[in-house]
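Re: the request from the purification team.
They wanted to know what the chain is likely to look like in 3D before they choose a buffer screen. I agreed to run a prediction and write the result into the notebook, where they can find it.
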Amino acid sequence: MTANTTAIAILLISFLVMIFLRFQIAYAVALSSIFCLLYQGLPLTTVCQQMVKGISSFSLMAVPFFITMGCIMGTGGISEKLIDLANACVGWMTGGMAMVNIVASYFFGGISGSAAADTASLGSILIPMMVDQGYDDDFSTAVTITSSCEGLLVPPSHNMVIYAMSAGGISVGSLFLAGYIPGALLAASLMIGSYIISKRRHYPKGDAFSFKAFIKQIGVSFWALAAVIIVVVGVVGGMFTATESAAIAVIYSLIVSVFIYKGLDLKGVWKTLEQCIDTLSIVLILIATSSIFGYCLTTLHVPDLAASAIIGLTRNPVLIALLLNLILLVLGCIMDMAPIILIATPILLPIATSIGINPIQFGIMIVLNCGIGLLTPPVGAVLFIGSAVGKVKMERVVKATLPFYLCMIIVLMLLTFIPEISMFLPNLIMK
């Protein structure tokens, strides 16, 4: 066994062992990297250098701003407005509250960019409402957690910014545009699944559609939706960078939450910012420690070895694409989203591009794969949050989610093999 092979084994095996021992992911990533560096005889100053390098990026500054915007608008009375708008749109259908849940997640995801925030914020309102109207609690929770993944695809998503950085500076504006149609496709797929189940279980319809009520709710919710317009139009139109747009969106969200919707007072703002700091510290520590891990992977030529191994198994592009998805789905079962993006992108992106998958399309694939992972035991963060919010045992939630897993896998296959779904808007607008 060569020195390089031993170093790779130490890096990957120690990482996997710590993951299965339920170490915090940041500790597992950092310690496995340190063991690898010690074996190679490299100075531990490399750890500090790579951690600082990992978070010293202007484009990365957009991540804290987007998370802050999502926290402020998520606690500033936005959720109720978006639920009312979704109800005006689709509440009249069979299984109306399930449809409202899914559409509200599409709207809210465009503000928070976080599946966990979506589940905690909308779920705490919608799950009790659905149960009161006769929906089963496990079905209500399953709809909530699966629809929350729309927020990962619909811009502005801080995970898209992390992917853009990991992929070597891909256009954030193109990634934002690429997420709209896949997000809508995922919503439509979940609505079809919900409709079939609602028909079979005789879940109730909502009130009849009213165009007047719809227009009224558009007017009320406009200020919330305008935050997304500011970010996406600003970035795509080249008026400002993703970081600048995120900073502007934070100021805008403060004004809307405090002065227009009046869902926050000064004390509430400070409390929300404290919550933001907790979230930001986790994300930035993950990015910093993943940078060391990525450095070890690169110096040991793991991406090249992985590409050779996969291509050695088969040269069929369809099988390679399926294998890439399988790897990401398995990683999603044991790791959180940010470290998967940071660690897997440098390894798998060259393989994806070698079979003709556009880097932007691959970014959407990674995000959806990671979203499915957030709903999958044993490390499904959104699954745990949904179970806690809905007060339903996790085993029952997983069972109720099985039909929706199928809906999400179908969408994933469509995104993998029909690139136009992801690339239509970027090709149309970013030329």
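For the purification team: The chain has a mean pLDDT of 83.
Please add any questions underneath this entry.
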